[in-house]
Amino acid sequence: MKLLSSVQSFGGLQNQYEHVSATLNCTMQFSVFLPPQASDGHKVPVAYWLSGLTCTDQNFATKAGAQRVAAELGVAIVMPDTSPRGKGVPDDADKAYDFGLGAGFYVDATQTPWNAHYRMYSYIVEELPALLEANLPVSNKRAVFGHSMGGHGALTIALNNPGRYVSVSAFSPIVSPSQCPWGQKALGLYLGEDQAAWQRHDTVALIRAGAPQMPMLVDQGLADNFLAAQLKTELLEKALEETGYPAEIRYHPGYDHSYYFIATFIEDHLRFHARHLQ
Amino acid sequence: MKLLSSVQSFGGLQNQYEHVSATLNCTMQFSVFLPPQASDGHKVPVAYWLSGLTCTDQNFATKAGAQRVAAELGVAIVMPDTSPRGKGVPDDADKAYDFGLGAGFYVDATQTPWNAHYRMYSYIVEELPALLEANLPVSNKRAVFGHSMGGHGALTIALNNPGRYVSVSAFSPIVSPSQCPWGQKALGLYLGEDQAAWQRHDTVALIRAGAPQMPMLVDQGLADNFLAAQLKTELLEKALEETGYPAEIRYHPGYDHSYYFIATFIEDHLRFHARHLQ
In angstroms, what separates the C-alpha of B16 from chain A's closest C-alpha? Predict the structure, then answer.
């Protein structure tokens, strides 16, 4: 991995790297915030942030205001891109924002032509942590969180890999891609029309199928334009209630789907994860 | 003035407006953060943030992380654009980033063709506060701060109008445009080659000419690529020392010219201004 830039922030370092991903079969960029506690080579725990549709590794880095609290808590934050990129990586036929580039949905595609590159699930779960734990002062104590499509990614990845993550949280997640237009389009194209293959990438389905309990926090704005048609938080709420799964869902009147919402509550998420990471 | 968007942030509102500016002879956009304390129509004090080269009203709004502390302190933040905009507004002949659009330098141009629109000094000092104090729950207790070209704008505007601002601060300001390439180009084109007209838009010259004392804080990163050739903080430091002007200049090892630097220390600036605004 190659360091592209390194900028000081709250006594830590906001770094951007590039590497050739064997999983995604392309060159990828990602960002990492290393808190000051990592400066002497001391290994710090890591929270993996998964971004939403259209984002790159930069959105959370520049807009969430997370570095202040991460620096205080001694937690690194890893910010991957949201899809494979570059020459030869196919995109949505209409270049739509909700599929293809910027919209990997954190699954391993099984359908052509997507399966040659779109393997964000394995990239996030396996390749990236292995790379970082070998090359940076970060430990294998991991949390995962994200926003919208990335909230879906965080929840499904955590529920499928409870031994690899100590806690999970999400802002405005797509809680059941099987039951919303964004998810139906993406999972249909990446995984095929047989919905049996979708179930392990659907938070509500995983909870109903008896996913193991782990610390879970979800924040949802009530002025979010995507809540009714795409996010459908009530489906998760119902699944949690009916299975007795002890997650916390918080609704916030007046807040929308933007990074202004994320910035407002990111401190709570970082403190939540830090309690479990330490 | 017309409200373009309104997003909830830290219990307050991050708003963007549009209005026809008589001073600038064009339609302008600006952003305002209204803290929760303004929600019942109670008038809150205001800090005017002046941005640097290439910026619009959005950079500080999305990247500085200022809303959290402003919401706590009950201070509104006004974020103007950095130049006139739109059809008929002339730009730099080579569309360079350091003159014309995005580079108003907070002066009233006297030279053609710039003097038909480039009057950011009067816009910031007079038109915008009058508009906001008549239409929003903000008081006439004002502070002014900014970054780079906007740090220059904040310092010169405050020193020329001590009765209108209770305090001033700057990140990485151009302290003496008369003595650096950015400033020489801009002031030469906007104000003409007679440097006598530049002096009231040059912080170092104003201090040396006996500008009245007011609370002043300046932060400068020591890894800032523009420090040696453009910002030249040492000229301000020397002028302050030699005139006995009691401002605070803080140097920060490792910090660059970016919003990561601003975000790291913005809380200090807001608390500094709040002490004087209240």
Answer: 13
Interface of B with A (CB under 8 A): 7-11, 14, 62-63, 65, 67-68, 221, 223, 254-256, 258-261, 263-264
Q: Is the dihedral of CA B234, B236, B240, B245 positive or negative?
A: negative
Residue A245, classed as helix, strand or coil, is coil
Structure tokens at B113: 């063709």
> Residue B71 is encoded by which pair of tokens?
């919401």
Can you give the pTM of this predicted structure?
Answer: 0.96
End-to-end Cα distance, chain A: 28
B273 labelled catalytic:
no
**Is the separation of the CB atoms in A59 and A119 below 8 Å?**
no
- Residue B170, helix vs strand vs coil: strand
Quick one: tokens of B218?
């300046």
- Residue A270 identity (one-letter amino acid): L
pLDDT tens column, B187-217? 999 999 999 999 999 999 999 999 999 999 9
Residue located via tokens 């040396």? B208
The secondary structure element, H or E, covering residue B264 is helix B259-277
What does the alpha-carbon distance between residue B228 and residue B114 come to, in Å, rounded to a whole number?
Answer: 29
**What pLDDT does residue B39 have?**
87
Q: How many CB atoms lie within 10 A of CB A22?
A: 12
Conformational region of residue B122, where left means phi above 0, alpha means psi within -120 to 50, and beta covers everything else: alpha
Among B239, B53, B49, which Cα is nearest to B158's?
Answer: B49
Beta-carbon contacts of B267 under 8 Å, excluding residues fewer than 6 positions away, are B69
Q: How far apart are CA A115 and CA A99, in angstroms?
A: 14
User: What single letter denotes the amino acid at residue B141?
Assistant: K
CB A119 within 8 A of CB A110: no
Give dist(CA A252, CA B5) in Å, integer.
19
Q: Which amino acid makes up residue A90?
A: P
Q: Which of A185, A245, A189 is nearest to A214 (CA)?
A: A245
- A67 within 8 A of B263, measured Cβ to Cβ: yes
Backbone angle region of A172, left / alpha / beta, with phi > 0 → left and psi within -120 to 50 → alpha:
left
Can you tell me whether residue B112 is helix, strand or coil?
A: coil
**Contacts of A82 by beta carbon, 8 Å cutoff, 6+ apart:** A50, A51, A52, A53, A54, A55, A56, A102, A103, A104, A120, A149, A150
Collapsing DSSP to helix, strand or coil, B136 comes out as coil
The reply to whether residue A260 touches residue B65, judged by beta carbons under 8 angstroms, is no
CB contact under 8 A, B254 and A8: yes
Determine how β-strand B167-171 pairs with β-strand B44-50. unpaired
Q: Which of A11, A68, A255 sits opposite B8 (nearest CB)?
A: A255
**Whether B16 contacts B29, CB under 8 Å:** yes
Tell me the two tokens of residue A237: 């709420």
Query: Which pLDDT belongs to residue A118?
Result: 98
What number of C-beta contacts closer than 8 Å exist between A and B?
59
* Cα A199-A192-A123 angle, rounded to 5 deg: 70
**Distance of residue A269 Cα from the nearest chain B Cα, in angstroms:** 15
Average pLDDT of span A155-166: 97
Q: What is the ipTM of this complex?
A: 0.94
